[in-house]
Amino acid sequence: MIDAAIPRECVYKQFEEHPGPCPRCGGPLQSHQATYLIVTRRGGKSADSFFVGNDMGWFCARCPTVVVNPDEVNEYLQYSLPEWNVGTEFVVAGIVDLDAVPEEKRDLPLGDDDNPIPLVEFTAVSDERAPRETTGPSEVTARPRARTPRGEGGFEQQYEDILQNIEFGIVQVYREHPDMTDWDALNAVENLIRLYNAEVKGRQPALPSLDSLAQSVYESVKMMCEWRLGRETPFRDDEGAPVETVLDPITLDEMIDCLKRVRKSINRWHREGGLQGYLTFVSEFIA
To answer: Beta 89-96 vs 9-12: how paired, if at all?
Structure first.
């Protein structure tokens, strides 16, 4: 069984019987049953979307990646009814987390106003050989700086200090454990996104199941996040007493967006530099 609530990157790859190793980390891939949302388009305009429940996805056991054969999706779309508007182009948008549908609403159609589709969107969708849309990390320092007022400048300008604090929490662990990999950072950030998403939705978050290094990153970054949310301070004086700092707390939605931006950075620099590509890059900018 897979955890449908974990955001993943989707890679399209044509293959016959088995896709081989994971195109991102080289880990083993296994086919699993899941429900996907397939969005179609025709001539640049939206056409019908479909739920597909099958085992076409091959999931990596090591990193949050799923490999899909586009030929298999195309084959499925050939079996349509006359009244369907099946576009000539498609994208597999993400996995539908059916377990997230409240029990009292499971007899209602998904997509209604009071029963939205619990879609876990893919963090990126790309061909194995094609370049992917990426966003790099901001240049960071260890101390926060005043944020550009909201509505002025781009996202990274407005939230530069928050991004710096998150990345500082990651690099702290990397410097203590040089064998740490980008996957440890990615797993920690993914779990923090899930934690705060659950809080926004008023749900009880599942406890993260992480190895020791990823858990250390999770705790280090979470402390920074909680500080910027105005809940606690990571700073202590010589006697171990907390040192209060004056700052304007951000919202949970803002924190989730910042974590997602760091997630994109990890994905980019890992593809550029391998197992420690992101860590090597970002650590150069942490004082």
So the answer is: unpaired
Residue with tokens 């530099």: 273
Kindly report, residue by residue over 245-281, the tens digit of the pLDDT. 557 889 999 999 999 999 999 988 888 888 899 999 9
Cβ neighbourhood burial of 3 (10 Å; 0-12, 13-18, 19+): middle
The phi-psi region of residue 140 (left if phi > 0; otherwise alpha if psi is between -120 and 50; otherwise beta) is: beta
Q: b/e for 181-192, b at 16 or more Cβ within 10 A? A: bbbbbbbbbbbb
Q: What percentage of residues in the chain have a pLDDT greater than 70?
A: 84
Q: Report the alpha-carbon distance of residue 120 to residue 167 in Å, rounded.
A: 24
DSSP 8-state code for residue 61: S
Encoded tokens for 159: 């939230």
CA nearest neighbour of 9 among 172, 156, 124, 150? 124
* Between 85 and 145, the higher pLDDT residue: 85
- Contact (CB, 8 A) for 59 and 29: yes
Q: Tell whether the model's pLDDT for residue 47 goes beyond 90.
A: no
What is the CA angle 80-91-257, rounded to 5?
Answer: 140
DSSP code, position 137: P
Spatial distance between the Cα atoms of 183 and 165, rounded to a whole number of angstroms: 19
Q: Kindly report the pTM of this predicted structure.
A: 0.52
Lowest mean pLDDT across 25-39, 70-84, 142-156, 218-232:
142-156
